[in-house]
Protein 1
Amino acid sequence: MEEQVKGKIYDARQLKRLLPYAWPYRWTVLLSLVLLTAQTLAQVVTPMLTRVAIDKYIVKKVDGFDGVLSLLNPWLPTEVWPGLAFLSAIFAAMLDDRIDVIATDHAPHTLEEKNNPYFKAPSGGPLVQHS
């Protein structure tokens, strides 16, 4: 069943009529937009920061561990700019409907299971609760 569009998505006339009422609240609206942008960026960057924290700081503190503690599938770069580009591409694909669903599997693995070579270690990151 196909949905029918009832009116325009964006109507400049309606917005123009509402502006005089919103004008006294312009600084509140601006602050809200800035904070919304910051919160959105924080949500996008959080999985990458978790990966960097695990790979660069937590893994070094586990003595005698030769396996792969953090193996994300798909791969998430540990470098900042390639990681942001990767996450931005996923976000853009969601916005233009190339990606319909993002799913996650919260299946914890023990240290013994993760203590395998790269291609035999199960994917997933410890304490990763972001999707």
Note: Residues 26-58 form the longest helix (33 residues).
Protein 2
Amino acid sequence: MRTGPETISNLPLPRWLLRALVAVSLTSIAGIALPAFASGPTHGSVVNVHKPQIYLAAVSKAKAATVPAKGKKFDHLLTGFPLFGAHTQVPCGTCHIRGVLKGTPRQCDQCHGGPGMRGSTFKPVNHVRTQLPCDQCHNQTIWSGARFDHAAIAMGTCTQCHNGSTAPGKPATGHPTTSASCDTCHRTTSWLPAHFDHSGVAPGTCLDCHGSTAQGLPSGHWPTTASCDQCHSTRRWIPATFDHTGAIAGKCNDCHLPDKPSGHFVETTERSCDVCHNSTSTWGSRSYSHTGAYWPGTHRSSVTCDNCHKGLEVLPWPNPADKAFCGGCHKSNYRSDPHTKYGNVKYTYDDLKDCTGACHIYTDSTLTTIKDSRPGPHHHPSDGAFGD
């Protein structure tokens, strides 16, 4: 019969009770308040297991200290494996099979490496071949949009992975024929758009690539054998500019004849572009100098070409008999009312078909005494102004 104090070292404690007491100790270390054991005869701080009511109370207290109260969330941070992202939405039993906590995997591939008890999402058969941990590229929020840090990858070694086997490589069609490393044109942040450094390309040698190993003239391009850089820049294809310094005046149609847009002033004209278009930098700047023998001078700026020509390059005279006068075009515009000759008598069209002439107002039909001198010119074609 034992006569000394009863301690854990000299009592035959059941294994399940030892586990409970160890759990209580660990909970205390983690900063969780320990429950007070039921009162009763004890020796020091050790439970007197010879008292059944105290023995059972200790077990109940230990269980309460290690299992969260119903309806309360367990702080997973205390386990050393905090949950983030999608992991926070996973039921406990998905990872802790049959409620067993010990031995739960902590490495991504131990759960996501392939189909299994915990493999709700796992590496697909077409995944990039790699032995790296999942979290090198993926995060815990979403699998898609994986990012690989290329910072440690040496320049020019792209094809060691991007060979179509380990990782996606050069597409079978549509890619320029080249043996250059991917990073010559592409960036690790985005494949497109790709940029090629043309600084080492000699001017005039564009066709060495463009037309054979790279994109050449598209359908609808002007027929030309000139090098691309005659018009295009390596920064962008459009807009293209052509240096007209050496172009011969009157020879525009050698290149531009097919380029006249629909709705052009005269679609059938064969005149050279520079007859009207006086700038090689913009088509919008245009002017035409009339040289006909009966042309009275440049009309006011508000008059457009179509006001008179109506789509015809050679304009027929509306009144050919009077083509030497304003009436050659403007006979139908004549109004007699404002043109008093004397009394109630008005000037006729034939009297004033040259609009720039004089139209004095006389005292009577003898036309010998001028009542109101109006020597002219009364109308000005350059600005359309009317005199008094």
Note: The longest strand covers residues 340-342.
Protein 3
Amino acid sequence: MSSAKIKTGIFVLMFFVIASNIAFATADISASSPSVENINLNGKWSSLLFGDVFLEQTDNRVTGTYRYTNDEDITKDGEIKGVIQGRTILGKWWERPSGGGRPKGRIGEEAQGDLEWNISNNDRTLSGWYREEGDQEKHEWDLER
């Protein structure tokens, strides 16, 4: 057998090994990625704690905003970023005092932490919790539409 035929045979064999590994890796990634095609979280949600929350979903990522006035009459702007895993959202929240016409800018403290919401089967309720960074205690935070 000539060396050209051996080199061609080795090349063909390597091609099939590489192609089969790529196909296996692609199948493995799609099998482990959560399917969110039937979940739609876009829009306005209501919360007893913080009023209206506006969520936007892109694939398995969720972002959101909210604004509320606390017991000390300080208006706060909040932001949410999370990832959908199965029917659960795991995320982070940040809030800061709104500048809202105050002469010296923002008054009050900034805060941030974790959140987790379970998505109901009809996509109309998010049940879960939030906690401030550094705290172990979780506080109930549910949304509905």
Note: Residues 65 and 79 are 5 Å apart (CA to CA).
Protein 4
Amino acid sequence: MPRLAISLNLSHNNYLHRILVVYLNIGISYKNNLQHWGCYGLGKILKKRVLPHKSLTRHPYLSWQEDTSTTITIRYATVSKKADTIYYGRSANLNHRIVTNSGNEKEVTLRHLQPGTKYNYRIGLKKPVYNFHTAPQDFAPFSFGVFGDSQNGSKQIKLRLCQALRKAHPDFLLNTGDLVKNGNEKYWWKNDFFATIGKLSSFLPLMAIPGNHDGEGPLFNHYFRYPGSLSWYSFTYASALFIALDTQANYLPGSAQYEFLVKTLQESIKTWKFVYLHMPPYSSNQGHQSDLLVREILCPIFEKYGIDIVFSGHNHCYERTLPILNNQVDRNLGVTYITTGGGGAALKPFISWTDLTDAEKKWCNVRIKIHHYVLARIEDEKLLVSAKDLFGNTIDSFELTNQNLRRNK
């Protein structure tokens, strides 16, 4: 059969939410204003928009308040105040159901799920079917995505980021803050986050922390449900501990957040340990540079308890330090700091190398002004980390051995 070339020119204002492709021996070229894709051996294109039911004013989004291997929390909003029925199950027939609360804001936690399992779910009878995965048991491989600072960014860039993250297939997402331009106003949550980036979390649990743009807390805590119902929290996933810190709140010694951090690390028996927060303790970007108070107060705790990586945002760039211990490079016992603030906001330049201090030059490693996300995968005793641009190209990658193993060498 002869090949037929088809070219589609689409703007993101006419973005196709789903393209179903049926195999025929035909070549297709898909082109938009961000990238040109060439695909061969594909054919008839069926265009179908996947839109929320008209009664939804906010699409469903996922998070964890409890055990990541046996529960999931689903939130969304509706025009109607009547309770809904959520159908869910491991197969297409969705043979389980649960009734939500009444009111415009709906929230339900599914419990007694099977670990390491894909579940489908649907709100009501005639609405799109979504899916999620529960966490596997300890020591099973898994991956997670990290990004931050999407506030007030280009809609095209944020939609492209969503596309890239879905294609990367992480098991869940961490966000390092600044989800919206002004977190004290509902307008920005609706239009700056839920209309773009937020759509990812219908399928991927999103565990976020607030940044300086996300307001004083009421709306962040209104929209998101995390363990303990605070803006700082922790959760475990397979062999890893994740600690979310709120650098907009008090974290000085003696504060509730400081005591929470120390207690959580003292009690953890997980192999891998990660922290994510908004303000970067080590950064050479012109936007905000290093947060010296975070460095003074929190970094000694990270070092004492063997945190593997600290993820931050705030600066709109990608930056990775060499491992640091006591403000000095230590490749065996040091903590690696990654600034991942390339989620859509306007990018900021770096301080020129000649203007850096001698101390900064020692820990400075990779610095790239680019929109991006980070993908991390744990496989046994190795952590594989790659930073990728919005087209899936790797801009940085490295491999890390667990801190506990490095300390015992």
Note: DSSP finds eight helices and 27 strands in the chain.
